[in-house]
Design brief:
Strand content: 15-25%
CATH architecture: Alpha-Beta Barrel
Oligomer: single chain
Distance between the termini: 21 Å
Helix content: 25-40%
Shape: globular
Largest sheet: 8 strands, parallel
Radius of gyration: 19 Å
């Protein structure tokens, strides 16, 4: 998981109905620093752990397509460099850094330069903080040194599907009106197509995504990822339609965990019923149409690397084969990022 030879100590407690994962504390997540070729983590109990060996087999070649890190508008568990070091240590192939509020291509380039030996990518989320459906912001991202910006997310925290359905809603960004993509998306789709970027649907509703996908394809976009589709309410029938249109469907570990209990201090617990639904959808639609990622970064939740391990194990326990896991964690994300699968 980091640039040396270590593993973060994680306590897993088996309880009825799921697994509770003990994660680094809120005040001090995983305090990583480098000394020569070794990596150190100050653990929750205050112990200074050094030189511990990590099982690199499970995550070897794995790509996490949805990783939140600091610095960010909201508190994060680890920063960019900490996560990239941890991912490299675990043998992962690549990380995609995501922020709801700021572009991450520049941060990805800096992390790659600092750590080395692992691919780091970023992108831009078209929320209000960068001007909404702002084609110029995408163009400028493409001009950044290193060219690590590969993903364009449609609005997430400012999506009409999220904000418009909340009581007393604040301003939001529409991506579909009168059954068609809004006009601003014409230029955005053209830029994405011309530069072979990945279009993510963000927090668009499944009905919106089913309108956006064919429109983007008609504009020449070839790489489309439906952001945690099931968490946004997509049914299996809708997933089948998305897959038939050529989109890849994302499932995120965050969506299969309960929230931490602030009163008791208990960590998140796996939601077995939702995981059953995820595995069933993969069986029915086909693993070739999916990728799985962590969506980790919130404090009091697992580290991204531990989340990926847990997700893979949970799916295997539900009959998903090693070959299918390989498709969803290595081959499909690699193709989207332009890496050799």
């Amino acid at each position: 998981m980091a640039s040396g030879s270590l593993s973060v100590l994680v306590v897993v407690v088996f309880i009825a109905g799921g697994i509770a994962v003990a994660t680094p504390p809120t005040q001090q997540a995983a305090n990583l620093s480098r000394s020569g070729s070794s990596t150190h983590i100050t653990h929750p109990a205050g112990r200074h752990v050094k030189g511990m060996k990590t099982d690199t087999n499970v995550l070897a070649g794995v790509i996490d397509f949805h990783a939140h890190t600091g610095p960010d508008v909201e508190p994060r568990l680890v920063n960019d460099l900490q996560l990239v070091r941890l991912a490299k240590q675990a043998g992962m192939r690549a990380i995609v850094l995501k922020s709801h509020f700021m572009p991450t291509a520049d941060r990805a380039e800096l992390a790659m330069e600092e750590v080395g030996g692992i691919e780091v990518f970023g992108g831009i989320v078209l929320n209000r903080s960068i001007g909404g459906l702002n084609a110029e912001a995408i163009t400028r991202m493409l001009q950044l040194d290193g060219h690590r910006g590969k993903i364009v997310w449609l609005p997430t925290v400012d999506a009409e599907h999220i904000v418009g359905n909340a009581p007393g809603h604040r301003p939001f960004i529409s991506v579909v009106k009168d059954g068609k993509p809004v006009a601003e998306l014409d230029e955005i789709f053209k830029i994405i197509a011309k530069n072979n970027l990945v279009l993510e649907t963000g927090h668009s509703g499944p009905e919106e995504s089913l309108i956006l996908i064919p429109a983007a394809k008609a504009a020449g976009v070839t790489k489309i990822l439906v952001t945690h589709a099931m968490a946004l309410g997509a049914t299996v029938d809708q997933l089948k339609q998305m897959a038939a249109m050529g989109a890849i469907i994302e499932c995120c570990w965050l969506g299969y965990l309960t929230k931490p209990d602030a009163k008791t201090g208990a960590g998140p617990v796996e939601i077995a019923a939702k995981l059953d639904e995820c595995a069933q959808a993969i069986h029915v639609v086909g693993a070739q149409h999916f990728l799985i990622s962590s969506d980790m970064g919130l404090k009091n939740y697992p580290l991204h690397t531990d989340a990926m391990k847990a997700f893979m194990a949970a799916l295997k326990a539900r009959g998903i084969s090693n070959a299918e896991i390989d498709l969803m964690t290595r081959k499909n994300p690699a193709k989207l990022l332009g890496l050799v699968p």
